[in-house]
Amino acid sequence: MDTIKNSQNGDISIRPETPPTPQETETLQIQEEGQLADRKDRLNKTTVEGLVRKSNRILVSISSHRFPFDFFPDTLNVEEGRITVITRQFFFNSQVHSVDIKDISNIFINMTFLYAQLEIVSRTFEDNEIKIFCLRKKEAIFARRLVEGLRIFESKQIDTSNYSKEELISKLQELSATKIVT
To answer: Quick one: where's region Disordered (predicted)?
Structure first.
């Protein structure tokens, strides 16, 4: 609203602003679209950076240990977004299974006198389960706790890329700190 003071009478008259011209309206729309596109670009860049950070961080890696020697140890890598199991049968021969955390329906620990076995049950595999034999008991319990914590984070849609590796591991241990009877 424009206010104009009439100096002769001392009256104040209020006149509405003149509506913007079509060119001004179009210019404003273009500026708003540009700002919106910039915001989307920044959001996409931060999202991609977070995903890259999440996908490349291995939280824990454990290997099987058969007695007395294990020439072809199986390996379990727990990452923020997935679990990778590498099974080796012979030299230069391995099989790799990757399971997204969101696709894990359950994870079990089977304990024996010397070792533990992790059994990962997936919703997506046809076989539906992956077993890793001859793990150290403490390492198997630790890996299970991390996976359970990551499953909770995934179900609550919590972004873990902002945490450092050490912070994330401590939060996951706190979150899944249930006593396991051995």
So the answer is: 1-24
CATH code reported for the domain at 58-175: 2.30.29.30
By CB atoms closer than 10 A (0-12, 13-18, 19+), residue 156 is exposed
Task: Report the C-alpha gap between 66 and 115 in whole angstroms.
Answer: 9
What DSSP designation does 69 have? -
Q: Which sequence spans correspond to the domains of the chain?
A: 18-53, 58-175
For the segment 63-90, what is each residue's pLDDT rounded down to a tens digit? 998 877 778 899 999 998 899 999 988 8
How many CB atoms are closer than 10 A to CB 150? 26
Per-residue pLDDT at 28: 80
Query: What's the rounded Cα separation, in Å, for the pair 150 and 156?
Result: 10
Virtual torsion, Cα 145, 147, 150, 154, nearest 10 deg: -140
pTM given for the model: 0.70
- Amino acid letter, 62: I
Helix (H) or strand (E) holding 158: none
pLDDT tens digits along 128-148: 788 999 999 999 999 999 999
Query: Residue 151 CB: number of other CB atoms within 10 A?
Result: 20
